[in-house]
Amino acid sequence: MLRGNKVGLRARHEDDIPVLQAELHDDVANAARAQGRPWRPITPGSKESQFVVDDKKQGHVPFSVVELDGGALVGAATLWGIDDHNRSAHIGLGLLPSSRGRGYGTDVVAVLCHYGFVVRGLQRLQIETLSDNAAMLRSAERSGFVREGVLRSSAWVLGEFMDEVLLGLLVQDWKPDSKQYSKG
Ligand SMILES: CC(C)(COP(=O)(O)OP(=O)(O)OC[C@H]1O[C@@H](n2cnc3c(N)ncnc32)[C@H](O)[C@@H]1OP(=O)(O)O)[C@@H](O)C(=O)NCCC(=O)NCCS
């Protein structure tokens, strides 16, 4: 498990899937904002769930996010689009509604930076988020991500086009928290 200050990132367990499906995917507004494609219902147990893991997909690394104190599942996080030639990847995350606003998102971004830069040897990480997603923008900026541009009207979300903000972080600009990632 990768450890932050408050949360850990571990492999997806079978019994995480229905919880993530119910709390993240089945919340239509949340899913429509986060997924970049039209929401559709997914049959319970379906292999089509975005939370089902294919361990053979090398460029896509999904984690479940758990509290370090007690191990409760609090969300999902992914390093995706890993490009080993350009040494870049994208970050995605979603926390269960009851676990938002407690600093976990900031912690998850920091741990994914450690995974991307240290474990995978990448040199650039990128996040795309809707321009009104203040918590995501702030969580990214706390790890040193900078706003590199606005993708105007790039996302169709429940009846309107919205802007997305593109954030990037280069390894040489990353200032890791030295207290993190202890193996204990
Ligand atoms: C976006 C998300 C991952 C952020 O995680 P979080 O744990 O809620 O955020 P944190 O508690 O770490 O807060 C980060 C910062 O945003 C601020 N913040 C939190 N919620 C906020 C809100 N609703 N509005 C404005 N600011 C907010 C916090 O005060 C904190 O700022 P600070 O560092 O200056 O104190 C989480 O809210 C979430 O899962 N949202 C739904 C899914 C989603 O939007 N995913 C991202 C898709 S790209």
TrEMBL record:
| Keyword flag Transferase | yes
Residue span, N-acetyltransferase domain: 7-172
Gene3D superfamilies tied to this protein: 3.40.630.30
GO cellular component terms given for this protein = cytoplasm
Q: Name one Pfam family in it.
A: Acetyltransf_3
Q: Which InterPro entries match?
A: Acyl_CoA_acyltransferase (IPR016181), GNAT_dom (IPR000182), Ribosomal_N-acetyltransferase (IPR051908)
GO terms, molecular function:
protein N-terminal-serine acetyltransferase activity; protein-N-terminal-alanine acetyltransferase activity
Q: Which domain of life is it from?
A: Bacteria
The alphabetized UniProt keywords are:
Transferase
Q: PANTHER family recorded for this chain? A: ACETYLTRANSFERASE, RIBOSOMAL-PROTEIN-SERINE ACETYLTRANSFERASE
The name under which this protein is listed is GCN5 family acetyltransferase
Organism this protein belongs to: Streptomyces abyssalis
